[in-house]
Structure formats: C-alpha cells, structure tokens
Request: fold
Amino acid sequence: MSKLKLFGLALASVALLSLAGCKNNKNADQASNNSDTMSTYDPYADTEYTGSTADSDYGTTTADQSTTDTKTEPEPVMTEDKEGNLSQVPDTKVNESNVFYIVAGSFTLYNNAQKLNTKLKAKGYDSKILEPYGQYHRVTVQQFKTVAEARAALPGLRKNIDQALWLLTR
Reply:
C-alpha cells in the first residue's frame, strides 16, 4: 500500500473514533441530566440541584414589585396530602395548631436532599429533612408554631439563602 493510502486510512479511523466518542459523551450528559430534581416555589417546576444557583433564577422578583400600592399579599401556605401533592391553604383555613416549615427544596432522591441539608447546617440553620409524603424529601430551613412567625422570618432568610423558599404546613 502506498503511504498516502495508509495516511488516509489512519485519518479516517481517527475521525470515526472521534465521532463515536462524541456520541457516548452526549448520552452521558443526557443521563446525568435525568438524575434528580429540586422544585422551586412552584413545586412542580423541576430543575436539577447542583449545589449552586448562580445560573438559575432563584430569588428573582416578580414583575414590578416597586409599585406605590402598599397592600401586599401574604405569603401563601402550602400543604401536602399523603402522596406528596401540594395545594395552597386559604388564609381562612390556616390551622394554627399545625407546624409551619420554611422549605428550601424538594427532592426525589434522598442523597440530594442530604446535600442541601448539609449546606444549610454549615451555614448555621436548624435544617431538617421531613419524612416524605409520596416521593418528595422536603428540606426545611426552620420551623415555627404560627404562620405569622414563619411569614415574618421569610424576608430575612431569603436575603441569606440562595434558594427559593416557601411555606409548608402539616
């Protein structure tokens, strides 16, 4: 065989191996993106928890909160059924005998819940992972005896924690 044919054959082999490697990496990337989810304020809008929120929209404010209207809506309180499905509790139905949690994340994989729990504990919070209802492991920042106490604590916690926080009662 001539040197030119050998060179062409070697070049074609390298190109073929490179393409095969790209395809494998793409499949690995897709598999890693399907691992676990964490919900933000909307518990059904899932995003992957990576331990950092630099590229996400956590903590963003809704459209024009600087209006002159001083009347603000109270922070909604969510509850969950035994399957983990969330629903909002109307203020008229909030039961003050319940415990109120400020939740920083919900995970289907316990390992990811542990990561956030460890991160919050390192920052000095009394973080806990609630016993799951359904498939979600809820990571709490703090718990309160009244909804008023929980709502009062939210603004300060939101300034110090780079997670979307929301209220849960059980």
